[in-house]
Amino acid sequence: METATVARTRTEILISGFGGQGVIRMGQILGLAAIKQGHRVTMLKSHGTETRGGYVRAQIVFVAFSAPAYKRFYDLCRGTILYDPELVEEIHPDAPERHVMVPATALAKERLNNVLFANMIMLGALTRLAGMDYAAMKPTMLEVIPRFHEQNLAALELGYTLPAVTTPALT
Length: 171
Prior knowledge:
Structural class: alpha/beta
Oligomer: single chain
CATH architecture: 3-Layer(aba) Sandwich
Shape: globular
Number of strands: 6
């Protein structure tokens, strides 16, 4: 009797930064979008006692929104690392091919006049790089975020269409 084996792939995504940057919100959107696409999802959120300004991570690819978080969680990631060069100025020199620069903060200031949209720019870049369903990500983001829909959609689109983020590369 032959038994069929099903190849299962596991993707782990670690999003880190400071409290108030929308790290947990990104994890919620990403996790809900994956669930709606039939994936099994577990999310662990962690933050210090001082929520705003303390270390925050949502683990559900590594997205670094601050230099201290990058340094703290770098060794937990074996795959691709998305980072914001305005917040992470120095990357590990041992694996530059694993790093994808996403100037989310600068673009949020420049195009949307508000750094609060940097997380949705990064989520757009992550969506494309991870090969996730962009059409499913948009309504999920709108479901989780209660306001500023037009700006958040523009930010998501901006990140998704960045030239530096071209093909699915997560392993």
